[in-house]
Write a structure and sequence with these properties.
single chain, mainly alpha, Tetracycline Repressor, domain 2, 198 residues
């Protein structure tokens, strides 16, 4: 029952917002009593925390699945962006923005996990791109990871509308790749941008 509650809460929070959804809303949608939810979660913040961890677990699994398909590094980046867009397509406001604004304590707890997933993903992608000749060999990998992470999360933390955040994150990805790309990388980047714009 606990996993069902977390799963339902996660879907509702992402679709309608962390602030607007109440424990009553979740209980009503699941046709259970609010008392049943409180049996597992003494307050809404704990439920948000577990829901957010479930989202990050799903993100990690989806990224691993994309990486296992052996796209080149640039294709892989665009596939991961598409995955994020698909996962949060029903969110009107950015989930990260909402967490930071309305539940800063929960945000602080989950931010470490978020950093770990993203920095690992960015680092692996840069190393892969270098080995494929799509990114320049002389890149300071650790600083490029930090630059991109700072850019992406500045957008998601400070942009209220998910659609606007998504558009800015696409621009940030293009900016990130152009900064690293070899001539072969630029050709691949232009190909991916054309796919998106068609």
């Amino acid at each position: 029952m606990k996993d069902k509650i977390v799963n339902k809460a996660k879907d509702m929070f992402l679709k309608l917002g962390f602030k607007s959804i109440t424990m009553d809303d979740i209980a009503c949608d699941m046709c259970i009593s609010k008392k049943t939810i409180y049996k597992y979660f003494s307050n809404k913040e704990l439920l948000i925390e577990e829901s957010t961890q479930m989202v990050y677990k799903e993100v990690r699994e989806t990224i691993d699945n994309i990486v296992s398909k052996n796209f080149n590094a640039i294709e892989e980046n665009f596939e991961i962006r598409r995955m994020f867009k698909e996962m949060f397509k029903y969110s009107e406001t950015s989930p990260v923005y909402q967490l930071k604004k309305y539940y800063p304590e929960v945000y602080q707890k989950v931010v470490g996990y978020q950093i770990e997933i993203c920095e690992g993903c960015f680092r692996d992608n840069i190393l892969k791109g270098i080995s494929e000749g799509l990114y320049r060999e002389q890149i300071d990998v650790e600083n490029y990871v930090k630059f991109y992470y700072t850019l992406i999360f500045s957008i998601s933390e400070n942009t209220a509308l998910e659609k606007e955040a998504n558009n800015l994150e696409h621009k940030a990805l293009e900016y990130h790749i152009r900064a690293m790309a070899t001539l072969a990388g630029i050709i691949e980047l232009e190909k991916q941008l054309q796919i998106i714009n068609n």
